[in-house]
Amino acid sequence: MIQVLSSAWALLLGMCLLMVGNGMQGTLLGIRGAIEGFSTFEMSIVMSAYFVGFLGGSRLAPHMIRRVGHVRVFAALASLISAVMILYPTFPAVPLWAIGRVLIGFCFSAVYVTAESWLNNAADNSNRGQALSLYMIVQTLGIVVAQALLLAADPSGYVLFVIPSVLVSVAVTPILLTISPTPAFDTTKPMSLRELARFSPLGCIGMFLLGGVFSAQFGMAPVYGAEAGLSVAQISTFVATFFVGSVVLQYPIGWVSDRMDRRTLIVITSAIGAAGSVMGMMLGDVFWLLLISAFIVGGMSNPLYSLLIAHTNDFLEHEDMAAASGGMIFINGLGAILGPIITGWMMGTSLGPGGFYLFTAVLFVILAVYATYRATRRPAVPVDETGNYVALYPTATAVAVEYAQEYAIESEQDDENNS
For residues 326 and 189, what is the distance between their CA atoms, to the nearest angstrom? Predict the structure, then answer.
């Protein structure tokens, strides 16, 4: 752990500050949109635009890095993020906000690709798992801290937009001044979606559904809070609780997944997520129960992402895992684009704010039912032949997923050697 911190502290600090900026702008726009009088559906378009940009960035970032290098890509896109954050309150219009969100999503995706390749270069076989865990913890910590900073000023003013802009600008400094080696960059050509679906139908369907769940909680949770009449402090606590749940429950679920049929665990976690969603829909007017529901939904959805990747890897050869990662992320991105739009439409009907939780409940139920069906179609992989579970969050790019799969393969080989 100390070795990882000494070699990558600047990168981890910079990523934490970047995530604070990203977490603030996402929640703040949901609150500010209500102040500006934007409808729920209009805000759903704005929130969905982020995932359009993110998916595009994940496809184009590797080409940009190969052409001009890590340093230029990282610095240029971080500067663009900082500029867009300042422009939001200056031009409060839905089309301009949507364009800004596309740019922000594109830039953050490319920044993640750059940072994750740097992190991979800074780690070795002995500390790869620790480095990946620290990276994921730092990302979540940044988002949680961001919610607390929303209480620093009035969301109807400019200050809360200035803070994330400054943090993003500052985040670049330690990274660019401290990290000198520029790693060689290469990514594996993605596996075709048809071939990926043949290997793991559950993995593909599950990733699509989970993209909708994650984008709803990441993009529409603050819009839900504003529609439900929550205060700024309550909205920030509500949004943070999703990510606290993901941190607390990620590793217990991962431990269990290495010791039982993963399809059964997918059914169980999806059912619990659906129950948490129903709880939020039926009892959301009691704030502490609303927080419990957010903890459950976040605590189930984020580990499910890693669980579906691990399940898919159980049916792949080692040399195919890296190629499959790009396809899995692309499918998840498609679901993420649709998630806020459908959620916003449901919240705009007679369902009101309850449409937010009804949407996640339906997706969890579909995943649980489909996983149950798939369990009848082919036998389970013996537990002693499954690969290791590695914690990942839906914000991870193909670089991090390939990085995690490399670590899982190494861990599996180490376990075999020890046996």
Answer: 8
Kindly state the DSSP code that residue 158 receives in the 8-state scheme. S
pLDDT tens column, 63-109: 787 787 777 887 888 889 999 999 999 889 999 999 999 999 998 88
Read off the pLDDT of each residue in 156-174 and give the average, rounded to a whole number.
88
Q: Is 183 left (phi over 0), alpha (psi -120 to 50) or beta?
A: beta
The vertex-116 CA angle with 320 and 107, nearest 5°, equals 110
Tell which residue, 342, 308, 340, has the closest CA to residue 53: 340
Between the alpha carbon of residue 267 and those of residues 107, 177, 206, 207, the distances in Å are: 35, 47, 11, 14
Cβ-count burial 236-274 (b if 16+ within 10 Å, e if not): bbbbbbbbbbbbebbeebbebbeeebbbebbbbbbbbbb
For the stretch 332-378, pLDDT in tens is 888 999 999 999 999 988 788 999 999 999 999 999 999 999 888 88
- Read off φ and ψ for residue 125, nearest 5 degrees: -60, -30
Query: Which residue type occupies 21?
Result: G
AA letter at 49? A
Q: Is the pTM of this model over 0.85?
A: yes
